[in-house]
């Protein structure tokens, strides 16, 4: 029988004869029936060691993010990877907090994004509604609010009109004719920007602006 090739190669690498190598192995190699030290471990210790050395199971996948929304907010786009579900009658909407003002502001922000618009000019409104608008639109829409009873001249009004993407004239609030006239008299030049808001309330203004910039169906 031919000797194993591995023995022959080892003998060559050691520069000894195969016979000498085999004789040395016969004298010095451990017997094949010797037991491994681990064979003498008690079964419970062996089990614990095996468990400690085992590869940990892969982490469980992250649960799919879920957002509960009211019927109106359900129409708005969702973030990638987020599943939108209908909020129950007694549940608070995760998007608008069940606030009509915030819901309308989100609709307006979405309409601005869709058209690539950023700047809103509001002519009129009181201090309370002005603060509400700034908070609701912060970081999303640049807003300027013109005091309905303040002093404004034609040059400043013209600069406002050129700056804005949309101009909301809030006719139902405290708004003197001399102030509103500075903006509405330029209707021919800025018709595409101007929208008159006939109702009070932040939600009414936001929805009127959203409707103004949203493309008409068909």
Entry summary:
The chain is built from 9 helices and 6 strands.
Plain-language structure description:
- The chain is of the alpha/beta class and about 220 residues long.
- Helices cover about 45% and strands about 10% of the residues.
- The chain has nine helices and six strands.
- It has helices at about 5-15, 20-30, 45-55, 100-115, 125-135, 155-165, 175-185, 185-190, 200-215, and strands at about 65-70, 85, 120-125, 140-145, 165-170, 195.
- The chain has a four-stranded parallel β-sheet, sandwiched between helices. Strands 1-2 form a two-stranded parallel sheet.
- Helix 1 crosses helix 2.
- The mean pLDDT is about 85.
SSE layout:
Layout: H1 5-14, H2 18-28, H3 43-53, E1 66-69, E2 83-86, H4 100-115, E3 119-123, H5 127-137, E4 142-146, H6 154-163, E5 166-170, H7 177-184, H8 187-190, E6 194-197, H9 202-213
Parallel strand pairs: 1-2, 3-4, 3-5, 5-6
Task: From the alpha carbons, calculate the radius of gyration and give it in angstroms.
Answer: 39 Å
Spell the H/E element sequence.
HHHEEHEHEHEHHEH
Uncertain segments: none
User: Mind describing the biggest β-sheet?
Assistant: 4 strands, parallel
Oligomeric state, counting identical vs distinct chains: single chain
Counted by DSSP, the helix tally is: 9
Provide the spatial order of strands within the biggest beta sheet: 4-3-5-6
Overall 3D form: elongated
Q: How many runs of DSSP E, i.e. beta strands? A: 6
Structural class: alpha/beta
